[in-house]
């Protein structure tokens, strides 16, 4: 998805551009809303653009909000989203845990 670099108000906003990862999450979704309310430009990363669609009317960001598809497990997938940003709120958090079969948890004291 195409993004817009616009740090420091490239499009007229004076507050700058901020990336929020995990924008569909509890903290991320409120952060997006709070930043937009302050008149800032927001690059919001989501894993599933469809899943984010119900949040769009709640965010009501208009053209100050850009969505980017990115996954922590995909190298480089956040590159476009952070490009041109003045700051990044990295709140995406993977809940996938795996312990290799051969690893003995008893060894971790
Ligand atoms: N909530 C709290 O009270 C609290 C307090 C202190 C610290 N924290 C920390 O703050 C962070 C966010 O918490 P939260 O409550 O907002 O969590 P959350 O509601 O579970 O949101 C997690 C976000 O990360 C995204 N995500 C999960 N796996 C991903 C992956 N592989 N690649 C990219 N994005 C991925 C999720 O996307 P999907 O929607 O696609 O699953 C979701 O947007 C966590 O590190 C948490 O430990 C939270």
UniProtKB/TrEMBL annotation:
The keyword Oxidoreductase applies. Pfam families: NmrA. Keywords: NADP, Oxidoreductase. The keyword Glycoprotein does not apply. Residues 19-105 form the NmrA-like domain. It comes from the Eukaryota. This is NmrA-like domain-containing protein.
């Amino acid at each position: 998805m195409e993004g817009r670099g616009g740090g420091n108000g490239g499009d007229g906003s004076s507050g700058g551009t901020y990336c929020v990862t995990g924008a569909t999450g509890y903290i991320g979704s409120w952060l997006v809303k709070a930043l937009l309310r302050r008149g800032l430009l927001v690059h919001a990363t989501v894993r599933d653009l469809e899943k984010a669609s119900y949040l769009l009317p709640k965010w009501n960001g208009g053209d100050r909000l850009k969505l980017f598809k990115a996954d922590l497990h995909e190298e480089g997938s956040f590159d476009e989203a952070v490009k041109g940003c003045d700051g990044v709120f990295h709140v995406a958090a993977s809940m996938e845990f795996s312990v290799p079969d051969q690893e003995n948890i008893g060894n971790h004291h």
